[in-house]
Write a structure and sequence with these properties.
This protein is α+β, with helices and mostly antiparallel strands and 493 residues long. It contains ten helices and 23 strands. Helix 3 packs across helix 4, helix 5 packs across helix 7 and helix 7 runs antiparallel to helix 10. The structure holds tryptophan (TRP) and zinc ion. Tryptophan (TRP) binds next to strand 20 and helix 4.
Length: 493
């Protein structure tokens, strides 16, 4: 009885307290005079004196790539593009968190910027050689969120610089396509241009009515009329994405869509393609869902919610693993169907896109793995075994061949896309497979893809995982196949 009364009194007291607590903010908002909202910088925690953010994120091969002092969480890219003049006008918003107290920081952008605001306050800017210096009206404290809006405009195909011979912004008969690695972002949007700072993306483009815009992820809307003779398309990628994997293709495209168990499949074929090439391209790219099915059986679940591909009528000379929707050069289909290139770009969705390199020096984790996926596809579809393909490639390059001078685990800045990174890189995986046995080898690939999904990793991290999963140290194997600039004594296996 006494206990019960005590409990009741207790309950009533708690109830009263809750009511009072609930009433306080309500009363306060009714009676207290309105106060200005606290600026985001007015935190109780004392912050370090502001510093100037570095003009590079610390990549050993590309010291000016990316920037220091902040971490981008989201890009909202909005561009208007006029194909006849190749003029692009952009208004892009970055949401980022300062990782240092910043009096100034850089963005990577090669088109001229006209105005920048940081947390809605006009900032002072200075632009030089792909670096856009931003001095906010007030320093941004470490740990604070910042919203950076950049207005810019220019002619992307006339922009020079970067690491590539060919401009990564390529004009086509009716539009343009933005595809490049490691450089493309700075030709069309401001960013922290490095794969170690991944973020979500919303990509909006306004183009002349009648043209199509294809990009990454989900089609949120479009074509939607937004002015006389203008239409807007909106795309969104909600999985973290590296800056070089964001793309747009603008032009006259035939769009193919269908639902698959991996999400919406959307592919686009330039209407200007030669009909024979267009047919061969379709016959290949339309196998995307089956190939993803095949690869997910080996590497684990497909990491994204959309899938597809784009074939522009542009002499790109390569394909690029743009996230959810690779872009393929038409030349891949000159001799008819080509499933190998599709397997390669789709394997990158696991190795490169979902799990991205820490630094460009880790490129083997992308290209060696995607090439090995081609060999696995052949092995399991009536072709040569991966061991046979490795042996053929080993035999093809005698000792003294330049091929052996580029070690895939340390190719150097000028050789990140050297053939050896691909082919010797895949041989290294074959050597690893023989050393570990199939069960451990495939367990390692799967663990790498699933444990680091949406993130990054280095060659060292991968070798540590090998040791963790298999219990074996593969230091000597890594030295022979990944680091030494010489032909290993024997073919793998
Ligand atoms: N990652 C691409 C692939 O192997 C190749 C590549 C290297 C690339 N540099 C490029 C593609 C520049 C486009 C542009 O699939
Ligand atoms: Zn590749």
């Amino acid at each position: 009885m006494r206990k019960r009364t005590g409990l009741l009194i207790g309950l009533v007291l708690v109830l009263l307290l809750v009511l009072v607590a609930l009433a306080i903010p309500w009363r306060a908002s009714k009676t207290a005079p309105a106060t200005a909202p606290r600026p985001p910088s007015a935190t109780a925690v004392p912050t370090a004196p502001p510093v100037v953010g570095a003009d590079g994120i610390g990549d050993p091969y590309f010291p000016r790539a990316g920037n220091g002092g902040y971490d981008v969480t989201a890009y909202d890219i909005a561009v208007r593009y006029d194909p006849p003049t190749d003029r692009l006008e952009g208004h892009t918003t970055l949401t980022a968190t300062a990782t240092e107290s910043l009096s100034r920081f850089n963005l990577d952008l090669r088109l001229p910027a006209s105005a920048v605001t940081v947390n809605d306050q006009p900032a002072t800017i200075h632009q030089d050689g792909g670096e856009l210096q931003v001095t906010p009206a007030a320093p941004v404290p470490s740990g604070a969120q910042m919203t950076v809006r950049v207005a810019y405009a220019g002619v992307p195909s006339s922009v020079s610089g970067g690491t590539e011979v060919q401009s990564p912004w390529v004009r086509t008969a009716d539009g343009a396509v933005a595809v490049g690695e490691p450089d493309i972002a700075a030709w069309w949007y401001p960013s922290n241009d490095h794969p170690s700072d991944k973020a979500t993306f919303t990509i909006t483009a306004v183009v002349p009515a009648g043209l199509q815009v294809i990009s990454n992820g989900a089609l949120l809307g479009g074509p939607e009329a937004v002015g006389p003779g203008l239409q807007q398309w909106r795309w969104q990628e909600t999985e973290p994405m590296a800056t070089y994997l964001a793309f747009v293709a603008i032009g006259n495209y035939d769009i193919v869509r269908r639902d698959t168990r991996f999400g919406l499949y959307l592919a686009a074929y330039d209407r200007a393609l030669d009909p024979a090439i267009a047919d061969a391209a379709r016959a290949s790219v339309e196998q995307t869902p089956q190939i993803i099915e095949f690869l997910s059986g080996i590497f684990g679940p497909y990491p994204f919610r959309q899938l597809g591909g784009v074939v522009p009528d542009a002499s790109l000379g390569f394909a690029l693993e743009d996230q959810t929707r690779p872009v393929y050069a038409p030349t891949f289909f000159d001799d008819g169907q080509n499933v190998t290139v599709v397997v390669h770009e789709l394997a990158h969705q696991w190795f490169g896109d979902s799990v991205s390199v820490d630094h460009w020096s880790d490129i083997w984790l992308n290209e060696g793995f995607a090439t090995y996926a081609e060999w696995l596809y052949a092995e399991r579809n009536g072709g040569p075994t991966a061991a046979q393909t490795a042996a053929q490639n080993y035999a093809r390059h005698p000792a003294g061949d330049d091929f052996w001078r580029t070690p895939p685990g340390a190719p150097g800045a000028a050789s990140v896309f050297n053939n050896a990174v691909y082919v010797r890189g895949a041989m290294a995986l074959q050597a690893l497979r023989v050393a570990l046995g199939d069960q451990n080898f495939f367990a390692v690939l799967r663990a790498w893809a699933t444990e680091r999904a949406g993130g990054n990793g280095s060659v060292q991290d991968f070798l540590a995982l090998v040791k963790h999963v298999s219990g074996k140290s593969v230091d000597a194997l890594a030295q022979t196949w990944l680091v030494s600039p010489a032909r290993p004594p024997a073919a793998p296996g």
